[in-house]
Amino acid sequence: MVTFPNEGSPLLPSINTQSLQARRGSVHQVTFSPLPRGTGEGDSDHFRYPLTPGLRLGRDTTHSSTDDEDGDATVGIHGSIDRTREGNGGPVASTWKRLATRLRYYVPIVSWLPEYTWSALSHDLRAGITVSCLLIPQALSYGSLAKLDPINGLYTALIPNLVYGIFGTSRHLAMGPEALISTLMGTIITDYQHTLDPSLTDSAPDAFLSAAGVARVVCFLVGLITFLMGIFRLGFLDSILSKALLRGFVTAVAFVIICGQLIPLTGLNRIPGDLPLHASPVDKVRYVVAHFQQSHWITLGISVSCIAFLVGCTLLKRRYRRVGWLQQIPEILVTVVVTTVLSYVLGWQDHGVAIFGNVEARFPHPTLPRIPEPIFYKDLLTSAMLISTIGIVESIIIAREYASKNHYSVSPNRELVAIGLANLAGCVFGAFPAFGSLARSRLNDRAKARTQMSGVITGLVVLVTILFLLPCFHYLPRTVLSAIIFNTALSLLTKTPRELRFLYRVGAWHDLTLFTLIFVSTMLVSVEVGILLAVILSLLTVLQRTTVPRITILGRRTGTKDQFVPIPDYPDSVEHVEGIMVVRIEEPLFFANTGQLQARLKRLELFGDLATHPSERARLPPASAVVFDVEQMPDLDASALAILREIVESYHLRKVTVCFVHLRPGLFTAFERSGLSEKVGHGLFFTEVPEALHYIEQSRSFTSVSSGGEAQVDTDNETTPY
């Protein structure tokens, strides 16, 4: 009797999961979440194994994101292995267990595939096919946008999806070509071709051959950069780019794409014109307006109809979000199928409409990237770094968004490794750079994808299309591809009005200025200049804010004796301690943020706050004592120790007493080794601010009595910290 598996049955029933778990022993299995940490800080039976020489052992408590941030910032491996439970297999068995754990961690498919169920397969199958219905027309369009043969867009949709399914940690990230990346690739390829041979045009027979060679090299460099960023644990870099800057860049690129598609949408690319090669978006709009009477009206009608249908479907889906069947309609696929059938039936080709034409159905031949002129590697490397920056930021944001929505965690560093490997493999098979897509990932989530298998299925559907279904696109009007690109660019603008209103409402004039600057530079100069300026301004903003130490002057709250709060936060309910400046340092001190520390302390002493301009006259008398509350300073480096030493020496030259409060024992050791504790004075470290003030007041009393010829010290109230 034949029995059929139910939905909860494992897809691979031959694997005895119980015995497999028994063989794993105490090694924790990694699925989609990071391995558990050890039991405690001081548990000597738990230890970590570093992958990279020179990384220190120990637990880093400074990172506490949803993921491990690979969870373990010190060793690159998340999780602990209990030596007391390794069993009796000996060191060889223990080594194999560790290798198995590492394999499951770095190759996630090894972890989730043995537990894969028929229920998950049914969901992933539906999601993979649904996403492919959107991806295939997009890939053909983006291949053209990148100045490549449209089939290169399909290669970009094929290989990265298959590789990411093996190494990726996100269940919903949909890999493939993207509009922004394709636009940059088109610019790079155009610049390279005409630099190499000014007589070469896009219609020349060898144009696609040379373009494909450039695309391979750029894809290789992008993959290598992304892979190395993951290996060196730079997954946090997506956080340093300002959201306003990115929105300004994305908005500008959307307008660049829209302006660039106006010519093929109107059929004006069929007539000879005087449009310069590197025409700006404004030049392209002027060209269309000037030659609009020469438009190919059938092409224009097809374009307008397709755009209206796509925009209408988008608006309906946005309005009726809860209507499940409406959300599943693949409007792009419907557009492609309907226009292809109409083109064949009505003979649009005979009426001057450009069609997709014959494309050889072939599996991509593996070829290593090479370029005849090494002098171009420098320019291509710069472009690859810009593409990597855009793709990494977008992909990690998407992966984190859907991981949070579906209650699992992703690893930014392992995501970079997976995306890097996907592009390294893709460059061998004729792909250009591929990253995650927000639209396709959203569709993947709505289709209830369960695992990374949905991406593998998407890649397999693309493979079937390449091998067997390409002849079906023979009569597809090329203007339909331009309409798809145009609609994608419009979708990039949907968030812009809302974000601009938000920035205006909160008075973020700095962000609005940056938005405008990036938008104008991208529109009037080039896309490369826009993204380069965005990265530079983001880095400068980060540097500006990290190089300014966060310090606050404290005052005694009115009506209390031992409660000290920031004076700027409670200006009407605190009182200054006469002649004493109590300063709280609110962050770790290191070489970058200590350069302005002395100047900011001087401003606090003169004005009582940091908002007053230094040109104003002093409001407070010079301080006779300074108390540093360093409870919120968990760490400092050698440069910070040297700066603090200089500050203490300058205060002592003015006969100003310096005390430290809440100094951590580990930092006190650093103070001792650097000689700073001796410079301050061993009796001037306290556990509470009131104790330091009491000591200072006693010292004042002692000084005043000594000036009268008699000294008396209350030794019963002396306080020392350690």
UniProtKB/TrEMBL annotation:
The region called Disordered is annotated at 22-92
Q: Where in the cell is it found?
A: Membrane
User: Which InterPro entries does UniProt cross-reference here?
Assistant: SLC26A/SulP_dom (IPR011547), SLC26A/SulP_fam (IPR001902), STAS_dom (IPR002645), STAS_dom_sf (IPR036513)
Recorded hits in NCBIfam families, A to Z, give: sulP
Tell me which GO cellular component terms the UniProt record holds. membrane
Q: How does it sit in the membrane?
A: Multi-pass membrane protein
Primary location:
membrane
Q: Recite the UniProt keywords alphabetically.
A: Membrane, Transmembrane, Transmembrane helix
Q: Where is the composition biased (Basic and acidic residues)?
A: 57-66
Q: What is a single Pfam family found in this protein's UniProt entry?
A: Sulfate_transp
Q: In the record, what lineage is assigned to the organism producing the protein?
A: Eukaryota, Fungi, Fungi incertae sedis, Zoopagomycota, Kickxellomycotina
State which residue ranges cross the membrane.
207-232, 244-263, 297-316, 419-439, 451-469, 514-540
Q: Name one GO biological process term.
A: transmembrane transport
SUPFAM superfamilies, from UniProt?
SpoIIaa-like (SSF52091)
Q: What is this protein called?
A: STAS domain-containing protein
Q: Which domain of life is it from?
A: Eukaryota
Which stretches make up the STAS domain? 570-696
